[in-house]
Amino acid sequence: MLREHLDESHGAASRQPAERLQQINWLWSKLALMPGAQVLDVTCGPGLYAVELASRGCLATGIDFSPASIAYARELAQKRGFSKQCNFVELDVRQMDYRSANFNGALFLYGQLSVFTIEEAEQLLEQIALALQPGGRLVVEILDQQQVDKNDSTWWFTDNTGLWGDGPFIHLGERFWLEELAISVDRFHTLHLDSGQLDEIILCDQSYTVQEMTNMMMAAGFDSVDVYPAWDGLPLYDAGEWIVFVASK
Description:
Layout: H1 2-5, H2 17-30, E1 38-42, H3 48-55, E2 59-64, H4 67-80, E3 86-90, E4 103-108, H5 118-131, E5 132-143, E6 153-159, E7 169-178, E8 183-192, E9 198-206, H6 210-220, E10 224-229, E11 242-248
Helix pairs in contact: 5-6
């Protein structure tokens, strides 16, 4: 997965550098950041956003449960000379507790809030609200429910290496939509041809209407929520699939 995050030929795991720069400029403005601001990056991955914000003078804390991503983020901060401005923590974000940390801003990007149950998402929003100082802001990016693929589908392909394995494999996938729960489910089966091992991975994305997410943020302790469909017009290749929420405490 880390290899895919760092592959700049596509934006399926981490956005490509030019698009990421557009986002960071936008985030800098919407979060009202300035040198010396403290920023919390929830599910930070390999630290691409956090380190860039540190390069602009912020103090960045990134949290992710992936050992490989956190190791890379620390190495990236060191290489760029921002180790003192970055703190990367290997942790399941459901276990974080930064209440009264007085962050100026927080990020929860690329739909990562949607991989949690509604109850977990509510608790995460509450935890972030407690971690922000008065006037602090949170940016959440989730898929636009109206743009979510609600058609059942199946597919297969084979390759010699890639995300699903470092040797030859056959990959079988299916996607279906649970209307009553507003959940999109992807189920993947990968048969590794060298060993005969069969892996199964199931991914679920909880979707929300704009009103549902706004209500959740207000209930979590935020005073106002601004909504920006399609990344507020930024020239991202998939901008139309996303809605960005900026919640102010």
